[in-house]
Amino acid sequence: MSQHNETERPVKCSGCGIKLQTVNKELPGYIPESAFEREPVICQRCFRIKNYNEASSVSVDQDEFLHLLSGVGEKNALVIHIVDLFDFEGSLISGLQRFVGNNPVILAVNKCDLLPKVTNWNKLRNWMQQRCKEHGLRTAEIVLVSAKRNQGFERLLETVSELRGQRDIYVVGATNVGKSTLINRLISDYSDLEQELTTSRYPGTTLDMVKIPLDDGHYIIDTPGIVYPWRYSELVERRDLGAVMPENPLKPAVYQLNEGQTLFFGGLGRFDFIQGPRQSFTCYISTTLKIHRTKLERADSLYQDHRGELLTPPAAADMDKLPQWQRHEFRIGRGSQTDLFISGLGWIKVNGTEGAVVAVHVPRGVKVLTRPSLI
């Protein structure tokens, strides 16, 4: 086998055309030293797609991603936009419509297994349709899936078949929403990977889309995952991800609170009930995160004295890496069915109909908003 020395080594992946590097496995273009002896010389990501039907997503920031997408509107494309049900508003690509033009968009909503089995799924779809409309996003179809439990994929594939025609399929989504699993399912249903993996690049992009050939001459185009800095999943250390992102169905935790009471979600967030009649609040957060109730007047000192100990995660060492907490105050109107949504951490449903003044404290930059109740 021919040895490549440094001068002869190819600089770019013959699969996706990205610049090769041997330093960081997490970054695009990674190739182990030994792989330079293989023919063709391809990066680890292309190697995995080709040999294991496995797409592993790389990531970019929003501006870079939207730059990558420019031009899709002129193409004949079917776009699958995958979002995380647990972090719906945090993972929705709100600027997507102006880039996809009149091409159809399937909204694939992952992690539907987190909701109670008794959920009214039609009502839920209407709720999502409404949220998309508010963000100016038109959807041809909304399909609920669970990558973890392998649910909903048959329906998704049917929808893809109905809408695809002569189109390439673009798969878009934020990081950690289950995009790789979805692409792997599409590959196994549509692609004969005995073919050589051929990928062509869009000129002028810093990070390339990977084109996976389908049996009919069209492609699945795997776009990089977008990093949204306002999501908790992007802020915490990797070891705390499990505590933040629920693995199992959510167990709603209901608290009857008087005004002047506070709930801490580990050391990651705080909810204050400032004013209003005694009422209940339902917390939809990961079951691995401990909730502590205290008096509002004692909340600041409790946090100062017990952060990183009683109030974990994160551990004390990791707390200082997070941005300073920021307070968000909301006035909840009478008779409104409202959630307080914290991107990547979950949501708190306000059950009372008499109105309330509440506040949420989370690290600066984390997206916090009110929305009509999901459940």
TrEMBL record:
Q: Which residues form a coiled coil?
A: none
Domain CP-type G: residue ranges: 66-229
Pfam families reported for this sequence: MMR_HSR1, YqeH-like_C
Instruction: Give one GO molecular function term.
Output: GTP binding
- PROSITE patterns assigned to the protein according to its UniProt record, in alphabetical order: G_CP
The record ties this protein, via InterPro entries, to:
G_CP_dom, GTP-bd, GTP-bd_ribosome_bgen_YqeH, Mito_lipid_metab_GTPase, NOA1/YqeH-like_C, P-loop_NTPase
Q: What PANTHER family does this protein's entry cite?
A: GENETIC INTERACTOR OF PROHIBITINS 3, MITOCHONDRIAL (PTHR46434)
Q: Which NCBIfam families match?
A: GTPase_YqeH
Task: Please give the name of this protein.
Answer: CP-type G domain-containing protein
Q: Which organism is it from?
A: Paenibacillus typhae
